[in-house]
Amino acid sequence: MPETCKPARHVCLAYATTKDVRQTLLAQTWREPRSFTTRYATLFAGLSTQERSTRLRRVAAALTHPAIPEVERHHLYVTMHHGHWQGGIKLRDRGDQRLCATCLRAGDSQEDTAVHVAHGCPTARAVWAAVARTWQEATSEPLDVTDPTLTVLGLRPRQPSGGDSRAEARHRAREPAWRLLHAVTLLKLHQARTRAHMAYHDPKGPREPRQAKPKHILRAIRQRCARMVCYEHAKAVHSTQAEPRAGPRQGAWHTFHKHWLATGVASMAKGGRPRLHLLAAAPPVSHAAPGSTHIRVGAALTPAKGKRPTASAWALEAHDVGPDGEMTERLRASGAIATAATHPAHGQATVAKRHTWQVAMQVAADRALLYAAQLRRKGRRVTISLPSATTARDLQPARPGEARPRTSHRDIASNNSRKLQLLGTQVTINVDTAVTPQRLQHAAGAAAHSGDIRMQVSVPGRAMHAIPFSQQA
Ligand SMILES: [Zn+2]
């Protein structure tokens, strides 16, 4: 089978199927799409032959990704082969029709190429900036939208791995969501461009284009993506009900969870419908008052698996809240939790008999209170957001006559409750059951995985350092 953008390979004739014959015949007439040596030549400049065919292969794989709806896929095919009826070559003799109508309205003449519509136009740049922001908020993955390889071809840079297979797996799990978001964004940008173009060249005189501003495009993207996530959810629910029971860590629901929920792109809302976190209408509200410090905590509990015992960990992040509500990072910290069940040799460093979710939450609350006490000495007001109402309730002093059940976390909770009362009104507790930020969740998960019970502290602009347990108290 001759070389295409995939390397050449041999087919054993004894086992050849119709598919092999068809693919061999197709490969013989394969030509590289003309657009990649003309219009998109700059996106392939400076690559070796091997890198070039890798990139072509990734573009081809992106086109056929199952997360992309058919309408968007068709548009993506046309865009990649540069077949849109626009720009200087297709509209050579039609005056200023070859120019970008949006830029013309602003008094700028720019040729209306596919790269301009999808990347260079001020409208496109505003849309991509918002898309990158919401993507980073939801998934904690930064995107460089100044690179047309990302915006036009839709290729995210490979994960700078450093051998971290879990980070690589998370990067891979985000691919369906990214494919959907990218394909939808390209189509909505193109539709807005066409509306602007038609309005500008309306024979009845230039008119105001409708729904062509970045905010309209972003709303259309959000609505489309939200519908597709609902569709993926319905598909997963249907497969779970209609197909034979899948084993652990497989099956439609597991895949849906891995691609859409665990990535932070969506979550399940009340009523069992998925809620999209991309370009959400309102930004998450901060309950912290301006001028104070907001501490969020998270915890992770990984069940025993094979020879690995149960593990749990805590993580926190602290942000200073500015006068107009913007957040500046102050510190983030995490650490694994030692319990008598798994760390019998650690003596007084163990916090409870065994690992439970509430033990982990209480340890996280304890570390947050420790840091809050430091901040209070500096005269700052502090708000601590806990993701669990139970944890917040256990931090309140017991009412007279109220008997708390003998749970694993009772001792540590009553310690925390005393500490909280000593801190007085400068420190407030707040329950925020919205989804824990991905960065926090990953930090707690990584700490549980590493099992390092020292406190890992990182302050922006300084290197991460570890504090052994003895100095924490
Ligand atoms: Zn433009």
Structure notes:
This protein is of the alpha+beta class and 473 residues long. The chain has 16 helices and nine strands. The protein has helices spanning 18-28, 49-63, 70-80, 87-90, 101-105, 114-120, 122-139, 148-151, 165-173, 175-200, 214-242, 252-261, 357-377, 389-395, 410-423, 438-450; strands at 266-268, 274-276, 293-302, 311-321, 327-336, 382-386, 427-431, 455-458, 465-467. It has a seven-stranded mixed sheet with strand order 7-6-3-4-5-8-9, sandwiched between helices. A two-stranded antiparallel ribbon has the order 1-2. The protein is globular and about 85 Å long. The chain starts with 17 loop residues before the first helix and ends in a 6-residue tail after the last strand. Residues 100, 102-103, 110, 116, 121 line the site of zinc ion.
Structure described in brief:
This protein is of the alpha+beta class.
* Strand arrangement across the biggest beta sheet: 7-6-3-4-5-8-9
Helix percentage: 40-55%
Alpha-carbon distance between the termini? 68 Å
Number of domains: 2
Spatial shape: globular
SSE topology:
Blueprint: H1 18-28, H2 49-63, H3 70-80, H4 87-90, H5 101-105, H6 114-120, H7 122-139, H8 148-151, H9 165-173, H10 175-200, H11 214-242, H12 252-261, E1 266-268, E2 274-276, E3 293-302, E4 311-321, E5 327-336, H13 357-377, E6 382-386, H14 389-395, H15 410-423, E7 427-431, H16 438-450, E8 455-458, E9 465-467
Parallel strand pairs: 3-6, 6-7
Antiparallel strand pairs: 1-2, 3-4, 4-5, 5-8, 8-9
Helix pairs in contact: 3-10, 6-7, 7-11, 10-11, 11-12, 13-15
This protein binds zinc ion (ZN).
